[in-house]
Amino acid sequence: MKTNLITKITLCGLLLNGIYANAQKTTLEVNTSNTITKIQPTMYGIFFEDINFAADGGLYAEMVKNRSFEFDDPLMGWKQPKSDRHNFNTESGIAVPVQFSKKGTNHNYCRITVKDAKGYEIINEGFRGMGIKSGAKYNLTLKASKEAGNISKIIIQFIGKDNKILGETSIVPTTSDWKEYTAQLIPNATEAKAKLRFTFEGTGTIDLDMISLFPEDTWNNRKNGLRKDLVQLLYDMKPGFLRFPGGCIVEGRTLVERYQWKKTVGQVDDREILVNRWNMEFGHKPTPDYFQSFGLGFYEYFQLSEDIGASPLPILSCGMACQFNTGELVPMDQLDPYVQDAIDLIEFANGSVDTPWGKVRANMGHPKPFNLKFIGVGNEQWGTDYIERYKVFEKAIKAKHPEITIVSGSGPFPEGDYFEYAQSELKKLNAEIIDEHYYKDPKWFRENATRYDNYDRKGPKIFAGEYAAQTVAIASPENKNSWECAFSEAAFMTGMERNAEVVHLTSYAPLFAHEEGWQWTPDMIWFNNLESFGTPNYYVQKLFANNKGTDLLAITKNGKAVTGQNDLFASAVKDVNTKEVIVKVVNTSAKAQDLNIDLKGSKFQSKGTVIMLTSPNTTDENSFASPKKISPKESEYTLKGEKASLSVPAYSVTVLKLKLK
């Protein structure tokens, strides 16, 4: 029996050796000396929209919800645990909103009446709680006016579970005039669901407004700035552009609810709060407490673009509300104010300090222009109404600012009558850049890696402004950020990169999602009140953006582009700044594949780098528990001769970087 077993093992080994000996490696050829076209600096960028609590409660680091009592329910987010807010005859006291003006932007304040000298309290719940870290500093500001009586002190505390005090400070109100007070809290524990409690000592009446709390440790240490960990994730992508403020949020469900950039600049206190269009959009995730404070406004977007090295790309309303909602239209003879908003925005971004809007920018702290190069007209409108309005914007902008590149749109879908009509009409108009959107299943992304191969090289350039593979369906709450979605997007991205003559900008969407406050999935970056992580899709985007190169090269198999043959997709670039050739290979097969990459036209150093992103299961995801389950692994690569041998794992994205001699 033993002899027979040994014989069987030996025969098996011989058979396997014979199979491997006869296996043919896939040979890819890269012509390193012939540049096909230049890669645009904007090739890979970021799409930002205030959806999923991406701004208030997310990137904008304000921790107090409804800080100026301007929500539709002025006390939303505020609790009065020792009183009934509907009963003015409470024993300890009462907080009631007071509307002092129907004009301007700040309409309300809160009047606190304290009847019990032992103390009356109100509590702010934050955005699904407040994330605080032990030993960190949090800066509080509030405006107060003593109306009557003698309220001698306001004690401010972080409280956790069972009202445990986690940090405390106080202020002493001194005058009946409106005055701003400041204080600092340093918690003694880390808590993701803290709340902020205000206890009033003495009796009487006091008015409060603009109660604000920010971590001191913000991005670039800016006072009342942005959440550091979230900006860091963006900075690490090395994005070529930042598109803002959306998205459907640009349009609004009605024209009144559209995004108006002029209302988002100047003093933060003077920015008018607006209901967020995503607050009740989906029955699966109603969020009635979702409003826009515009603390993150157009100035801050431009500033963020500058901080992360990205070209700003603002998108403006074209006078059409969301066509999935009301589709409300501005009559053509009333379009001038919308067009003027675009002209004035260019002045705000680029004008000298002697111009009216350049002066506004300078007064906010940035006398130097923001170097705006692009502006978008409309988000994803469609049909004759859009084309008619686009013509008016294009004529006016080009007459005054021929140096600005205009981004137009082809609607919400990547095919169909609306799409074909927009493409045809915009091409007739010599449109510069057309924005295309695609939310499709992973298979679609793999099958459409050749989408741009036959686009007119002399026609409009393409901005792939919103794309993300969907595991279930568009807007389904069951969509996941699965590994299959991510590597399928990578396969599609090799096709966009191969067609860099046509495709000039690309961005995944949406960008951010709060763990508890989301409306739409999938999303590139997830966060809660304390932590954040990049999805596999984020790491795909980062890999491509960090390795976009400067010159497109041809990579072929048997003389043809690598677009899915044997489930392989590939693109290649040269970076003249780092003197590297960079090859990207996506293996969507369930099996590992061996490659020979024949490098023609250049000599290389022997030491290079290989970066791999892979996971054995197509349904794998990253999470708060395993934030880097699927993340790049980098190692040294040794090149022998003029052919690079490489084994690419099943379901993988691989980047090979070789230094030129």
Automatic annotation (TrEMBL):
Residues 465-652 form the Alpha-L-arabinofuranosidase C-terminal domain. It comes from Flavobacterium aquicola. It catalyses: Hydrolysis of terminal non-reducing alpha-L-arabinofuranoside residues in alpha-L-arabinosides. It comes from the Bacteria. The keyword tRNA processing does not apply. This is non-reducing end alpha-L-arabinofuranosidase. GO terms for molecular function: alpha-L-arabinofuranosidase activity. Its EC number is 3.2.1.55. Keywords: Glycoprotein, Hydrolase, Signal. Residues 1-23 form the signal peptide. One of its GO terms (biological process) is L-arabinose metabolic process. Belongs to the glycosyl hydrolase 51 family. PANTHER family: ALPHA-L-ARABINOFURANOSIDASE 1. It is an enzyme of class 3 (hydrolase). InterPro entries: Alpha-L-AF_C (IPR010720), ASD1_cat (IPR055235), Galactose-bd-like_sf (IPR008979), GH (IPR017853), Glyco_hydro_b (IPR013780), Glycosyl_Hydrolase_51 (IPR051563). The keyword Hydrolase applies. Pfam families: Alpha-L-AF_C, ASD1_dom.
